[in-house]
């Protein structure tokens, strides 16, 4: 494509000399028919009807008229040429024969990076010298002097064969194969080894042997200290003294009075513990231990003593409200436990729990009294136990199967009946140092009543309460009052908060239950309460349940 700014060469017609200019094509223009002369569709005229065609040729039909359908105005507006444009390209709009550029010039950075190079800039190739095509010599060449004579760089250099590797006077070391090994006879008598070498070998062997002997001697002397024939050993005495009051002494005296129970109800079974309280064979235990067999025909309760004696047991009486029960075992001259007093216990006293946890008969664990007068509501799942006990808390290990066994003090006297534990998680759990026992002062009277009548009556105040606290005072708020009960007769109404019963402070609903049940039916007791923010004291005559 020629540069539009370069003047065009004159054609031969313009020069008038009939010669061709450089690069000019020879073209022959065909004569065009004048627009004034009509175009003859056929050089022959049509023959009249029935006439023979002329010798010039058959008649020819004229061209069919060109049908141009009308253009839809909407389609013409969308796809038609712009106004003022008739051909396929827009008309030239400037004087130098080029179309105007409708696109904005590119940014300077893009034009510099991707545009055509500046003709005035030096080229990347080295300039030729004298038109020979060989690069001119420069001082900054990247090859070394004499590199042009290197045969590896000269494609016209001839091939030559050099000497083989190792030639040129280098001595090649000959690798010798392994020779035959010498026998002991050839070494000493065959004169195959120099006598000097044999002497050196003997000296080396003697030195190695001497070093090994010294190491062995030092090792033996060090081990001799561990096997001294005359060591000093601690002295022992023939017998071991167990002073009175030791755990061993208490266990030896109390374990024979403890029994283990096995309860079978159909295909199910359970275990528990008990303590003999009467020479006639009466055994005190928990209600939840024997309750599964209380009202089931064919249930069996078997007592196992410390010496392995087994005997059938019969339920004498049960008290679900205190979780106590008495059974009778037909045995001759059983060992009876000694009763102590739970009223004299203080926090920190040493205690021992005895029973059959998880069926392990005669297990003894030691601990202390962690708390006293601790109200604990028992969850007798699967039984009719619905008890709130005024418990002795201990850290002696108590586990399932210890229930009904005795808690004894440092004298060996029974001070409680192991009943419950507090554990983490659902279902049965092991001891975490939170065990609870029914005080023996409460259990003794209930056991005597069960042996005498087979049932027990308790004092009743006739209200239902819940634990409340206002941040400074705790108490049991009355939820409802039973009609005809002791509380209604004393004038207690719903909404009253009971804070004291007799001499005992009430901190919650469970403590109110144990405070009332530790008294007898018919006792008159002073009850302090708060009604609408004002303190009030009433006298209540406790009824019987």
TrEMBL record:
SUPFAM superfamilies: PDZ domain-like, Trypsin-like serine proteases
InterPro entries: Chloro_Bact_Ser_Proteases, PDZ, PDZ_sf, Peptidase_S1_PA, Peptidase_S1_PA_chymotrypsin, Peptidase_S1C
Keywords: Hydrolase, Protease
Region annotated Disordered, chain positions: 1-171
Pfam families hit by this protein: PDZ_2, Trypsin_2
Compositionally biased spans, kind Low complexity: 41-59
SMART domains: PDZ
Segments of skewed composition (Basic and acidic residues): 12-35, 136-156
GO molecular function: serine-type endopeptidase activity
Top-level taxonomic group: Bacteria
The PDZ domain, residue ranges: 450-533
GO biological process, alphabetically ordered: proteolysis
Family membership: Belongs to the peptidase S1C family.
Protein name per the record: S1-C subfamily serine protease
């Amino acid at each position: 494509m020629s540069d539009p700014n370069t003047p065009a060469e004159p054609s031969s017609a313009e020069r008038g000399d009939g010669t061709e200019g450089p690069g000019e094509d020879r073209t022959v223009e065909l004569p065009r028919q004048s627009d004034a002369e009509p175009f003859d569709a056929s050089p022959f005229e049509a023959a009249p009807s029935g006439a023979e065609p002329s010798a010039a040729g058959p008649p020819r039909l004229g061209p069919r008229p060109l049908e141009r359908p009308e253009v839809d105005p909407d389609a013409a507006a969308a796809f038609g040429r712009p106004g003022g444009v008739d051909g396929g390209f827009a008309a030239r709009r400037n004087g130098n024969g080029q179309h105007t550029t409708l696109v904005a010039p590119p940014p300077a950075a893009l034009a510099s990076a991707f545009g055509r190079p500046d003709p005035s800039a030096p080229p990347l190739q080295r300039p030729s010298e004298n038109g020979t095509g060989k690069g001119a010599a420069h001082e900054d060449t990247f090859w070394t002097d004499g590199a042009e004579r290197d045969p590896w760089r000269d494609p016209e250099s001839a091939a030559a064969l050099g000497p083989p590797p190792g030639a040129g006077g280098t001595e090649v070391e000959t690798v010798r194969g392994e020779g035959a090994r010498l026998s002991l006879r050839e070494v000493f008598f065959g004169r195959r080894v120099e006598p000097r070498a044999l002497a050196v070998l003997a000296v080396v062997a003697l030195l190695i042997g001497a070093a090994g002997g010294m190491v062995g001697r030092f090792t033996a002397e060090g081990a001799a200290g561990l096997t001294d024939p005359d060591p000093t050993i601690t002295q022992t005495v023939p017998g071991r003294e167990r002073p009175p009051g030791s755990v061993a002494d208490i266990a030896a005296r109390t374990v024979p009075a403890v029994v283990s129970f096995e309860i079978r109800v159909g295909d199910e079974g359970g275990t528990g513990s008990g303590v003999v309280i009467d020479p006639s064979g009466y055994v005190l235990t928990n209600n939840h231990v024997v309750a599964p067999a209380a009202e089931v025909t064919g249930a069996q309760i078997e007592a196992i003593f410390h010496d392995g004696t087994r005997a059938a047991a019969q339920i004498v009486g049960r008290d679900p409200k205190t979780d106590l029960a008495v059974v009778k075992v037909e045995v001759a001259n059983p060992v009876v436990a000694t009763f102590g007093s739970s009223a004299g216990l203080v926090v920190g006293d040493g205690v021992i729990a005895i029973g059959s946890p998880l069926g392990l008969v005669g297990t003894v664990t030691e601990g202390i009294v962690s708390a006293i007068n601790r109200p604990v509501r028992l969850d007798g799942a699967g039984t009719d136990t619905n008890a709130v006990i005024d418990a002795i808390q201990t850290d002696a290990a108590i586990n399932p199967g210890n229930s009904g066994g005795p808690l004894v003090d440092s004298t060996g006297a029974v001070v409680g009946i192991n009943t419950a534990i507090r554990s983490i998680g659902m279902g049965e759990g092991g001891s975490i140092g939170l065990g609870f026992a029914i005080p023996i002062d409460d259990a003794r009277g209930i056991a005597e009543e069960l042996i005498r009548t087979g049932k027990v009556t308790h004092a009743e105040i006739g209200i239902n309460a819940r634990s409340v606290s206002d941040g400074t005072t705790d108490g049991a708020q009355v939820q409802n009052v039973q009609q005809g009960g002791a509380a209604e007769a004393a004038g207690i109404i719903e909404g009253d908060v009971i804070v004291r019963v007799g001499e005992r402070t009430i901190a919650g609903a469970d403590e109110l239950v144990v405070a009332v049940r530790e008294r007898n039916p018919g006792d008159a007791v002073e009850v302090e309460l708060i009604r609408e923010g004002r303190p009030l004291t009433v006298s209540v005559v406790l009824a019987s349940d």
